[in-house]
Amino acid sequence: MRSQKKGPFIDKPLNDAIAGMNARNEKKIYKTWSRRSTVIPEMVGHTIAVHNGKKFIPVYVTENMVGHKLGEFSPTRTFKGHSAAGTKDKAVAAAGPPVGGGGGAPAGGGAPAPKAG
After folding, report:
1. Which residues pair with 59 in a beta bridge?
2. Rounded to two decimals, what is the model's pTM?
3. Per-residue pLDDT, 104
């Protein structure tokens, strides 16, 4: 948590760019690597492309985002989902071998292969 006395942290180049765009009344996408910068009210209405380590994710800043960090809106990991087959295989493997007694068919089991000929 940052002290209230210090105020929100914003990287200087990002702050200067936002102030310049507000002075010129222009709306263009600004690319930044500064995920640690806090969203301030002057940023509302701008689109800021935040780097996630691989590419820039465009973030349109709204009033609800004020006080949060830019990095919160540019996820660094992509969730692919849980595979249904993978969870079943893991559950069977965790259960171990079937309980029985071990007096069944020999290892490799099954019927002998038919002879060709």
Report:
1. 48
2. 0.67
3. 58
